[in-house]
Design goal:
CATH topology of the largest domain: Glutathione S-transferase Yfyf (Class Pi), Chain A, domain 2
CATH class of the largest domain: Mainly Alpha
Strand content: 15-25%
Largest sheet: 6 strands, antiparallel
Radius of gyration: 22 Å
CATH architecture of the largest domain: Up-down Bundle
Shape: globular
Strand order of the largest sheet: 2-1-4-5-6-7
CATH superfamily of the largest domain: RecF/RecN/SMC, N-terminal domain
Length: 368
């Protein structure tokens, strides 16, 4: 998978931009607040139709402009695509494939797969469970449309159930059972698919981790409903979840929200059976995060038959020479990569063959 060209109009601090890329390594160099990360964000937007930096799409539109336009030519193993995302000043979005509007954003996602690696990735290891759930959903969703479909519909039913719990004083148990059944059915499918993806991710990540850190074993545990494991069938998970929803009704009514389900799940990482978020050193946590991102690349290739585009947002200054070497060895001549950095001095240049360098200054490319 490769991005040949990108065009921006009124996106963040860019008025008009048209760039052609190398199929290998592309480096955006510039001081802070010049627009380097905005370029990576625009690529991420073309993949998932959302920003990784803000939930407020209005912020993506250049100040005093009415609409922002992000467009790119993509090469896939199945052929070429023209992807486009338009963002209106009110935050609404329109996503197009080959100039045809997709009525649902879930149908749009998956045309361009990306993996983003940024300094805040340490939060995946030691941050809140919501960060890890977002990691699962964004990565698994872009490689499997059925997962994204189940997750999207689960969230819709969850929203309806929560609204009902907040708004109604006298609960209609028959109606609630209908919501419970729908939630349990969709939630069970999401949980089962997460188990399958996490198992594959663990296998790949452990092999990568072992090549970086000798004598260390990395394992990932998916924490979900009590009494459910990777061997449970979808029906068993659904029955279990349905029973929990009924059992926890009084608590849910008091909290006015659904307190049980995959929207409360978590991932836990272990090195040699010791929890990384609690016991690991900073170096071990960084290695875990790096192993996880590299494993994503390989997992997406297994799931889709092609490698994703890799986005590295100012991470080289965070990695020592050993980890830089491992990262470059993994991606060289395999994955189209976009790197942001304030200075080329942060990168072991001997590791990169013939990069294409873009100098970014105040929303413009200088000598790119």
């Amino acid at each position: 998978m490769e991005i040949k060209n990108i065009q921006l109009k009124n996106y963040r601090n860019y008025s008009v931009l048209n760039l052609d890329f190398s199929p290998h390594i592309n480096i955006f160099v510039g001081e802070n607040a010049q627009g380097k990360t905005n370029l990576l964000e625009s690529i991420y937007l073309l993949s998932l139709a959302v920003s990784h930096r803000t939930n407020d799409a209005k912020r993506l539109v250049k100040w005093d402009e009415k609409i922002s336009d992000v467009k790119a030519s993509i090469n896939r193993t199945t052929g070429s695509l023209l992807l486009e995302v338009l963002i209106n000043k009110d935050g609404t979005k329109v996503a197009k494939v080959n100039n045809l509007t997709e009525k649902r954003l879930t149908n749009y996602v998956g045309n361009l797969n990306v993996v983003l690696f940024a300094p805040e990735d340490l939060d995946i290891v030691k941050g809140s469970p919501s960060v890890r759930r977002n990691f699962m959903d964004s990565e698994f969703g872009q490689m499997n449309k059925q997962y994204l479909f189940n997750l999207t519909n689960f969230r819709k039913v969850l929203k309806n159930r929560n609204a009902y719990l907040k708004e109604v004083e006298q609960i209609d148990l028959d109606y609630l059972d209908v919501l419970n059944f729908q939630l349990a059915d969709l939630g069970a499918k999401v949980i089962k698919q997460r188990f399958e993806f996490v198992a594959q991710l663990t296998d790949i990540a452990n092999n990568i981790h072992g090549s970086i850190a000798d004598s260390e074993t990395l394992t990932i545990k998916y924490k979900t409903l009590r009494g459910i494991d990777e061997n449970s069938t979808v029906q068993e998970i659904s029955d279990n979840y349905f029973d929990l929803l009924k059992k926890n009704l009084e608590r849910d009514r008091f909290m006015k929200s659904t307190t049980t389900g995959p929207h409360h799940d978590d991932l836990i990482f272990f090195i040699n059976d010791r929890e990384v978020g609690i016991y690991a050193s900073q170096g071990q946590q960084r290695t875990t995060a790096l192993s996880l991102r590299l494993a994503e690349i390989e997992l997406i290739n297994r799931q889709t038959g092609q490698y994703p585009v890799l986005l590295l947002d100012d991470v080289f200054s965070e990695l020592d020479s050993t980890r830089q070497t491992q990262l470059i060895k993994f991606i060289q001549d395999k994955v189209q990569t976009f790197i942001t950095t304030p200075s080329l001095n942060d990168i072991e240049k001997r590791l990169i063959d013939d990069p294409k360098i873009f100098n970014v200054r105040n929303g413009e490319i200088i000598n790119g």
